[in-house]
C-alpha cells in the first residue's frame, strides 16, 4: 500500500485489543465469541452468519498470543469459532508448540505456516469476502526486535505464490494491518506495518504472515528469536514490554484517522498475573520475564487513569478479564482448556459482566457516536 492509500475515514471507530498470556489467550477468545454471538442474536435474519471480528472492528491489535489471534482474526479473516474450535485452531497450534519438554522455535514456525497455508488455500479470494464492507480492519501483533532495519519491498505488490509465504501486506484489499515490535536492546517498541507509514520516525518492515505470527508468539522463556528473511531483524515475544496493547491500539487509530471518534473500545485480558515459583540465577531471570509478560492488568489500569476525563473515550471502553483461577494457570498450560472454558463461562455469567456485554454490544452496533452513548 502506498502512502497515498490510507485507511478509509470511518467514524466512529470500534477498536479491539488482545493481551498476551500464552494459552490463557483462550479466555479472551471465548469472551470475544460471546460478544459476536450477542451481535448475532440481534439480527432478524436467521440465516445471517455469526459476525467475523474483522467485519465488526476497525482496528484489531494484539501482543504475544493476542498478536497471533489478531493475525488470525484480522489478516486471515477467521471467525472466532473457527479460531477456537476449527481443525487448525489457535489452540491446536498451542498444543503443537507446548507438547514437549523442550520447546523448539521451528515447531512454532511450522505450526503457524501450516495454519496460514491451510487458511489461504481455503479462501483463494481476497481475505475480506464482503467487499462492500468498508471497515478498515487492522492487525497489530507485538514482537521484540534485535535490529531496526528497513526491509526490502520484494514481498510487497503481489501475493506470494506459495500460501505459506504470503506477505503480511495484503495488496488485494484496501486495508492496513501492522505489527508492533520492541527493540531488543532498547526495549522501545515500533510498529511493523503492511503499508508505508509516511512518518520519518517510523521504520517500515516487510515480512510474511508466518514471520509476524512467529515473532509475536515466541515467548523468550520457551522459544528462541525469530529472524525476518528480508530485513534480517531478530524478534521475540513483545509481551515482555507491551503485553497490554490497548494504549498503542488507540494511539495508532489516532495516527491513522484524523481526530477520530470512538464508538467502542474493547480490551480483552488473559486473567490476573501468575506468581512464578522460581528462585534465582537463570530461573530468576525467567521469572522476572514471566512477571512482565503477564502483568497487563496494571498497564490497563494506568491507561484508564490517564484517559478517564477524555470525553471521546469515557464510557466507551470495556475491559473483560477473567479474574478468578487464571493466576494458577501457566502460559503453556494447553491441557487446561476445559478449566479455562469453565472459568470464562463463570465470569461472563456474573450479573456485572452480563450487563457489560450488553452495553458493549449496544455500542458495537452504534453508527453515530454523537447520538449514542454508553449509558445503559
UniProtKB/TrEMBL annotation:
Which Pfam families does UniProt cross-reference here?
A: Patatin
Gene Ontology CC: one annotated term: membrane
Keywords noted in UniProt: Hydrolase, Lipid degradation, Lipid metabolism
Per the Swiss-Prot or TrEMBL record, what residue ranges does the short sequence motif DGA/G cover? 237-239
Q: Where is this region: Disordered?
A: 147-167
Look up and give the organism this protein is from.
Answer: Botryotinia narcissicola
Positions occupied by motif GXGXXG: 20-25
What is the protein name for this chain?
A: PNPLA domain-containing protein
| GO BP terms in the entry | arachidonate metabolic process; glycerolipid metabolic process; lipid catabolic process
Q: Where is the PNPLA domain?
A: 16-250
Superkingdom is Eukaryota
Residues forming the motif GXSXG are 62-66
For this protein, the record's InterPro entries field holds: Acyl_Trfase/lysoPLipase, PNPLA_dom
Q: Which residue positions are annotated as catalytic?
A: 64 (nucleophile), 237 (proton acceptor)
Q: What is the lineage of its organism?
A: Eukaryota, Fungi, Dikarya, Ascomycota, Pezizomycotina
GO molecular function, a single term: calcium-independent phospholipase A2 activity
